[in-house]
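Example record for the data management plan.
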Amino acid sequence: MNIVVIYIMKIDDLKSRVLSVIHNKPLTVRQIMRKVNTKYGRHYGYTTIGTILQRLESDEMIKSKISGADRRNQKLFTISKNAHKQEVSRLLRSLFFKFGPLGIRHLGEILDTKLDEDEIESILEKLDL
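Corresponding structural encoding:
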């Protein structure tokens, strides 16, 4: 009997992987693809990474500029100033949607901070939840 395992990755997970390799140095789609594939031991295609980069750019997580002369114009991507803040907010929203206020309270416990109901409510307001 053959068992087939299908690995399904959420788009947000791949976005996080792409963001993890983009820093201050401008990179091309191909450079980003190679870094992601090397770091995570996967083989994502050029168009897959390109699509993720388009989505990240439309979410204002990254920015791009055209560089080069003549026929070798290349689009270079860098991380936006507020990308890390946006990603942390997204993760906290996800935590809340999965586990409710208890998830936020548990995060406080991990950080050795006891959160009362008012503090949890304040966090949720800041996250626009």
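Summary line stored alongside the record: The helical segments are 11-21, 29-40, 46-58, 83-99, 101-110, 117-126.
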